[in-house]
Amino acid sequence: MVKKTLKQRIVDASVELFQQDGYHNVTVDRIVEYIGASKGGFYHNFKSKDELLYEIHDVFISYVIQQSQDAYDKYDTPIKRLCAMLQTLTQVFDMYQAHITIFYEESRSLSDEYSDTIHKKRDHYRDILQRVIAEGQETKDFRTELPCTIVTMAIVGMINWTYKWFKQSGPLTMEQITEVFTDMVLRAIVTEQAMEEAKQFMIKG
Fold this sequence. Notes:
mainly alpha, Arc Repressor Mutant, subunit A, 2 domains, 0% strand, elongated, Tet_transcr_reg_TetR-rel_C_sf, KstR2_TetR_C
C-alpha cells in the first residue's frame, strides 16, 4: 500500500473531524495534533483552513470531471456516454460521501477566491454533460422538445441531492440506485428510434 502524503493525511483527518464537530469548531491545532504533525507541516501544504475546505471539494469534483471526460472519450454514442457519466456522478456520492456532505454544509464559509474556482469546475462538469445531451438531440437519440440546459440541470440536481439521504447501510447499494436514476432519465429523454439501444441500460420489468 502506498504511504499517504502529509497533505492526504491532513485532508483525511479534517474530513473526519469536520464531520464530527463541524468546520468552525475544529482548529488547525486540533487537526495537526490528531495526526501527530506540526503546524509548519500544515501551512506547508495549505495556506489556511479555507484552502483545506476547498481541497476537500476539489478531491471529488476533479474525480468527476476526469471520469466524465474519460467516459466521453471511451464511448461513441450519446446514450452510452450519458449512462457512463451517470454512473460516475452517482459513484462519487458513495466514494466521497463525507467530503461532499462537509462541503455542502460548510461551503458558505469559503471566500470568493475559492468559490469562483469551484463554480468554474462545476461549470466544466455541466458543460461535458450538456454536450452529451446536445449531441444526443442532434442525432435524434434524445427528445429535441426538451431544453438541453434544463435536462442537464435536472439530472445534476436529482443526483446531487443524494448526499442528503443516501446511506451505505441502507437497503439499496449505490449501484442499484444508479440503475434507478439511469432508468428514469432514459425513459424521460430517449426518443422512440433510440429506445432499442437504451433498453440495455434500463431496469428489466
